[in-house]
Write a structure and sequence with these properties.
Layout: H1 5-24, E1 35-36, H2 38-43, E2 47-52, E3 60-65, E4 73-74
Parallel strand pairs: 1-4
Antiparallel strand pairs: 2-3
Length: 75
């Protein structure tokens, strides 16, 4: 059976993000969550993930994933 290219790309992207997050983790890092700018997220090796909250209000959550600011809210 042949996998679609989107599935393969998503799997590779997830693997890369997980590997980058593991490498960036520091035992002495300050507690999270916090707020970070979009520029700080990108410069820290992360990507910005925007997701709908799903409560019907049209609100969104914007988080930094991967890198040094993993899990912080993007302002």
């Amino acid at each position: 059976m042949r996998k679609s290219s989107c599935t393969v790309i998503a799997a590779v992207a997830l693997w890369i993000l997980c590997a980058a997050g593991a490498e960036a983790a520091e035992p002495d890092a300050p507690g999270l969550p916090g707020e970070v700018t979009a520029t700080e997220c990108i410069e820290g090796g992360g990507v910005i993930v925007i997701s709908a909250d799903g409560d019907g209000t049209g609100s969104f959550t914007t988080l930094c994933r991967g890198g040094t600011h993993d899990g912080q809210t993007v302002t």
